[in-house]
Write a structure and sequence with these properties.
- It contains twelve helices and eleven strands.
- By secondary structure, it is an alpha/beta fold.
- The protein folds into three domains: about 60 residues, Multidrug-efflux Transporter Regulator, Chain: A, Domain 2 (Orthogonal Bundle), CATH 1.10.1660; about 50 residues; about 200 residues, Rossmann fold, CATH 3.40.50.
- Strands 7-8-9-6-10-11 form a six-stranded mixed sheet, with helices on both faces. A three-stranded antiparallel sheet has the order 1-3-2.
Length: about 350
Amino acid sequence: MSASVPALSASEAARQLGVSIKALRLYEKRGLLTPARTPSGYRVYSPDEMARAVTIVTLRALGLSLSQVARVLEDDPQCVELALATHEATLGSEGRKLAAAMEKVRTLRAELARGRAPTAAELTRMLTRPFAGTSVAFDLPWPWGGERFELSDIRAITYIVGPLGSGKTRLARRLAEALPGGVFLGLERLKESAASSRLADHPALKLRVDQTLAWLVDEGAVTSDALAVLLIALEDESPGFLIVDMVEEGLDQPTQEALIACLRQRATTAARPLFLMTRSSAILDLAAVGPEEAILLCPANHGPPIRVVPRPGAPGSEAVAMCLASPEVRARTAGVIALRPGARS
């Protein structure tokens, strides 16, 4: 290690790389990184290790799974070809987006030439995400009693969190009704046992589902009907919003972790914003929430839903944390409702 270039702590390395400390731990767990240790046992990252980490983060940004990244780092020709093909596909996608953006600019200029100046909101919506700046307003259903609710600047992923009986499912259904093209995917999806038959007449959708499923399995996910049905909805390119009831239901912890990693990776480019109801800390890792994500809390006292910043001490942050549990705990306590001592049943 060069004496002139000090090693970085885990927090410093994560900050420079633009990833979470948890991501660095995952790379280490999968054998991709091997940080040194201080005499006190803290991880430190040398310049060589940071260079390797940059490669890992770059390959991940291209859409490669951790197993594929490992094979590229081992100079596996087949996986190097996959990395190049993935990069080519990414460049092609970016080229199409650039062409679409140019067409939007031409449209705005044509409107301007006809004497119609676009508003700031129209400029934001047309030149960035299709749903950037989108807002929705409606009267809240029971148990809120008709209070007016407004949600603005909808992000790529919005988590809906709340304790049992807080009304979050009713909020989710109302959002699906109020949002343009809103689709509510309820728990009845778990009863579907032949998801593959639904893809017979949709080869393009089947291809997307198969590719995403392969990526998830490579990340440690376990195939299941619950996952297949979820992927069919997630890979549907219909315009509008998708609202998913308890996204973790039917999925074990490795599958939940792989799924949210996939959704986060696509958050900056996905055209279809997601609302994910959850009580799983594997899905909603408060330390990993990014700029394209938001949290809606349905309070236990049936106060209006509030947007919560995932920062210790922020209003509502403690209540959100109290609603979340690991998949193991969630499975063990499924269907259990806590009663106050002395409360009547």
